[in-house]
Amino acid sequence: MDLGTSGYPTPAAEKIESYYDVPEGVDIRGRYDEEFAKILTIDALKFVADLQREFRNDIKNALECRREAKSRYNEGALPGFDPATKHIREQEWVCAPVPPSVADRKVEITGPVDRKMVINALNSGAKVFMSVTKALKVVAVFIISKADFEDALSPSWENLMRGQVNLKDAVAGTISFHDKVRNRVYKLNDQTAKLFVRARGWHLPEAHILIDGEPATGCLVDFGLYFYHNHSTFRRTQGDGFGPFFYLPKMEHSREAKIWNNVFEKAEKVAGIERGSIRATVLIETLPAVFQMDEILYELKEHSVGLNCGRWDYIFSYVKTFQAHPDRLLPDRVQVGMTQHFMKSYSDLLIRTCHRRGVHAMGGMAAQIPIKDDPVANEAALELVRKDKLREVNAGHDGTWAAHPGLIPACMEVFNNIGNTPNQIKTVKREDAANLTEQDLLQIPNGVRTMEGLRLNTRVGIQYVAAWLTGSGAVPLYNLMEDAATAEISRVQNWQWLKYGVELNGDGLGVKVDKELFDRVVEEEMARIEKEVGTEKFNKGMYKEACKIFTGQCTSPTLDDFFTLDAYNYIIVHHPEEPSKIQLMPYVYWQ
Ligand SMILES: CC(=O)SCCNC(=O)CCNC(=O)[C@H](O)C(C)(C)COP(=O)(O)OP(=O)(O)OC[C@H]1O[C@@H](n2cnc3c(N)ncnc32)[C@H](O)[C@@H]1OP(=O)(O)O
Ligand SMILES: O=CC(=O)O
Ligand SMILES: [Mg+2]
Hints:
Blueprint: E1 26-28, H1 34-39, H2 42-74, H3 86-90, E2 107-112, H4 115-131, H5 134-137, E3 143-148, H6 157-172, E4 176-179, E5 184-187, E6 194-198, E7 205-211, E8 214-217, H7 218-237, E9 245-248, H8 254-271, E10 279-284, H9 287-290, H10 293-299, E11 304-309, H11 311-321, H12 341-356, E12 361-365, H13 375-395, E13 399-402, H14 408-415, H15 438-442, H16 451-469, E14 475-477, E15 480-482, H17 484-499, E16 503-504, E17 511-512, H18 515-533, H19 535-540, H20 543-555, H21 563-568, H22 586-590
Parallel strand pairs: 2-3, 2-13, 3-6, 6-9, 9-10, 10-11, 11-12, 12-13
Antiparallel strand pairs: 1-7, 4-5, 7-8, 14-15, 16-17
Helix pairs in contact: 2-7, 2-8, 6-7, 8-10, 11-17, 13-14, 16-17, 16-18, 16-20, 17-20
The ligand O=CC(=O)O is lined by residues 151, 283, 285, 310-313, 364-365, 485.
């Protein structure tokens, strides 16, 4: 097959038989489906292509800046506050007022854009309202539902396009789902949660949509298609004139927020709606971004509804940023909680920054999920969630994330401690956090490393990648929620320990991690996985492929920026006549 300069098959390289009606310069290489065609209309594609053409150079530049920053950190520099933007941090300014429809965001349920889960999530507020205690019944319940094209989704063509169909039906209020096995029909309740949509990060391409011969930027596809089809209905039925609402992930610098702001302004202009209609919460989930929180809010100040502590990616980013700093190794993953000084400092500064600028400071995701077959263990898990949420609400957070509908009552109960106001923006200023320093934000976490930590990283990482390759981006493993961000921690931590031959100092064995030990651990953990899931499922699943990808990344001489970039090659399926696996190396495109 003839490949273009980007490494991708180009329109000129072969004859394409596309059934979609596309504007000039756009090619759809994903499977045709009548439902997808209602999303991939010529006008919607033109909107996405216009965004791509207008912003592609800015995006490439922003990713190049990330690479330059990485080189600096690899040469020994530490991330820190930027002296050039001191005036933005020091001056008094506020973001546009929070839209009344999302002033109360005490509990946000998140989940992938799967049809049944979208319905369950949108209905989860009503469920809580019915199942909570009497005392809580008098309190108005507001649930936000976050539909995820990101950490919780494996970005296959099918998942992404079905997700767009599901969201369009959800916003229209017509979504339904028939579970044939259980003969159960799912429909929306009268009262539903408000919808936020999280697009992919800037780094991920969409290889099934080529624009001028290059893959589209994944997040512009997610944003563009969703906005185009839903903005009008959303503002009328959900946002009280505002919206749609978004979450923006994995940014490292305010220049990336500026691109989003420009994207929003362009979208508003094209749609003929008021500037500031679209609102977004930015996840602060990279270490460099914690030093840019004011700057990020400043860039988005007409379009912001706050910041969120994306704690799992943040831990991943700590390891990634310090990949060349053997003096900053992390202890076992389970020991890196929110009470570690660097994590607490990050959340405290986020609250102070958001409240000073008049927007929400959202908490994060506790990893625990309900444990169905063991009431005692279930209660213990719920207690951990309550404790985590209590810490958040006491610190001043305005709301939090729940991974599962079963956790909503506990989260709601704790966050109702805020009292009779929708949030704590005006009441908890956290001025004490103004004095937090770069040293506080970078402080090396306490704890030890163990053989069990290495084993767990390996076992969980391989199983997660196996699930991701077969279309599931959020999975329950050992009673915890695992998604792309938590899997990344397992991967980079193994890489770091191998790279520096660290001593496992927590179990008295004094063993050093090297390739030989790791190979043995991988072999034993694969045997354990096979035993746990059963040989049939093991052989039918993609465990061996996942093991190859995961171990390859753990042992590679240089650390891959994201496991999803390499793994994406395995889930690209071009149509009509392409083989199912095409080695496209998406990252090459961005260089
Ligand atoms: C780091 C971060 O970015 S965190 C954010 C990204 N991560 C997520 O969004 C995780 C979301 N959560 C999930 O995907 C799931 O809860 C999992 C994978 C963790 C657990 O899934 P399961 O074990 O299948 O859940 P379980 O079987 O207990 O589900 C029970 C019911 O709750 C529903 N449910 C579970 N989680 C959710 C959710 N997040 N949203 C909506 N419905 C849900 C299920 O669909 C199921 O519905 P049904 O009874 O009508 O069939
Ligand atoms: O996206 C959330 C995170 O914790 O990562
Ligand atoms: Mg994340």
